Amino acid sequence: MARWASREVNYYLSSQVSGCRDRLIVFSANNVKGSIAPSVMIPEHRLAVLLDKVQHGQIDECLYHNTTIPPSLYYDHTCEEEGFPLQSMVELRDHSDEVWYIDFSHDGSMLASASSDNSIIIYDTRRWKIMMKLSENNAMSDVPGICYVAWSPDDRYLLSCSKGKDLTVYDIKVRSLGRR
């Protein structure tokens, strides 16, 4: 008894009404959708979002993760210990004190390192040479050290946070070393 309309599905429910013949009730999916609160409806693309979270969760839990290929959802993802690099390719010894944080640019072409020596060094990752060295003078702070760096999504700006609670934004493409 089901009929299919062009853009809506009709649901037929039969029910016995107190000794009368079966009664046919037709609900249109569009009519029901309008009477249900949006907070109850499942958002579009929800399954894709959930599957993406599962993939990222598997990567985060993988102790030796070393590939850019997204894991399959057909099995639990693990990287073998043998595939994890155990030898240094290059040592970067340009800071005069401890390095507290590093961050690769989104395109992978640059690496920024933040140090307790109040400097940030930006390396070209193709040759591992210094592209730029940024020093912060924290005249207002008694606490030296840069504890965090982060790239903007387009890799044009570099944000740094010092232990003295100073926030600085550098324009890397223009090589502007001033604060913004």
Based on the model shown, name its key terms.
180 residues; alpha+beta; Thrombin, subunit H; 3 domains; three-stranded antiparallel beta sheet; 13% helix; disordered N terminus
| Rg (CA only) | 29 Å
Helix content: 10-25%
How many domains comprise the coordinates? 3
Q: Using the coordinates shown, work out and report the CATH topology of the largest domain.
A: Thrombin, subunit H
The shape, in one word, is extended
CATH class of the largest domain: Mainly Beta
Low-confidence stretches: 1-26
* % residues in beta strands: 25-35%
| Count of helix runs | 2
CATH architecture identity of the largest domain: Beta Barrel
Going across the biggest sheet, name each strand in turn.
3-4-5-6
- Taking the alpha carbons of the first and last residues, their distance comes to 69 Å
| Helix-strand topology string | EEHHEEEEEEE
Coarse structural class: alpha+beta
Average pLDDT, to the nearest integer? 78
Largest sheet composition? 4 strands, antiparallel
Number of strands: 9
Q: Could you outline the blueprint of secondary structure elements for this entry?
A:
Elements: E1 10-15, E2 23-28, H1 29-35, H2 46-61, E3 99-104, E4 110-115, E5 119-124, E6 129-135, E7 146-151, E8 157-162, E9 167-171
Antiparallel strand pairs: 1-2, 3-4, 4-5, 5-6, 7-8, 8-9
